[in-house]
Write a structure and sequence with these properties.
Rossmann fold; alpha/beta
Amino acid sequence: MKVTFRNSKGFRLFAEVIGVRGVRGVRKNKQPLILFAHGLNSSRSSPRNTYVADGLVGKGFACMLLDFTGHGESEGTAGDVTVEQFASDMDAALNHIGGMDGIDRKRVGIVGSSMGGTAALLAAAKEGKTGRIAAMVLRSSPSEGYHEYAGKVAIPVLIVQGDADPIMRESIVLYEKLGGEKKLYVVKGADHLFSREEHLKEAREKIVEWFTGMFLNTENPGIRVFKDRRSAGGELAKKLSEYKNREGVLVLALPRGGVVTGKEVADYLGCPLDVVIVRKLGFPGQPELAIGALSESGTVFLNSDIISSGGVSKEYIEKEISLNRIEIERRVSLYRKGKKLPPLKDKTIILVDDGVATGATIKSAIAAIRAEHPMELVVALPVSPPQTAMELKKIADKLVCLMTPDDFFAVGAHYGDFRQIADEEVVRLLAGEQEKSH
């Protein structure tokens, strides 16, 4: 979603907002938001900032990626570009954020990179305790000449710095001068731009972990977090002990993350594991928000409330279905060597995922499985919003769900480790099942 507003000079600024769950009728809880401040000669399209923002969106955050004055689509020229102007632009962005629906104004943070981090330091110092910025991350942010502002920063600050970056020493001095809650995290071998993939991945994990602790877990002390998908699967398996060593039981997992959880369930129960392949149909501009889902059998589930509220066109839906049908075919070929689902008739099917939000994907899977006439269909999940859990209870024979938190933001917010699962890992886990059957 693109937004625009004006700064103190009257320049028109552009920003991209991602991860907002504010489509009417979908969610009621207000979200935390992270504002991204890019460096000199960069823009809101910075692939590094986008990568970090995607990780935060997966945890339930909304993110705003801003084009500063004279950058990207925003107005202004090179002569208007200063640290002070960047800080002023952030002030304009914060004013805009204050008027956004569905955003929790008490949980707004900043990720500042390079010169954008220097400007964020200045902005935070001027903010004091006004409450418009609740926490801040500075990545590779030159601070020489701005150390005087460090003592005026009244919010928690995480500095993420590569030790192969020439400004490493500046960051250490900045850390020492910060007077409030602070943390310095050094990524060994990382340069100023975090050019190597493994260094940027490490930085993202630390940033996501830090903001999750600041804005989700501490704001909601009752929130429960699984260590990882395997741990959640182990807990889930014990709730399904009545199916242990029973004939005719099959665990079907939703790839990719659900396969890790489902593997733990299948091993505990002593039954086979396979996958049912379903693809989420994403909302325009917000692909993480499901408007429906498509199963490998061709079953389509559509969320009419979201489609109607968001004004999603029939042409867009048809295009999404077409694109996702291609991806389903690829996954069937990769995961099952092109074979169809195993026979499900008269069997007890335990359908497992690592969690659900709207439930569109798993509802499509349920419809596809029902068409094969199983004896019993059990849905097993570590976490779900209460409303989705109620809906699943009505269409499954049984629902086993470990948590249904009222303050649900995203599945990933309930995991300490919610890394993306690669196709290779899914193939490896399923290959173990195939070996056992021979």
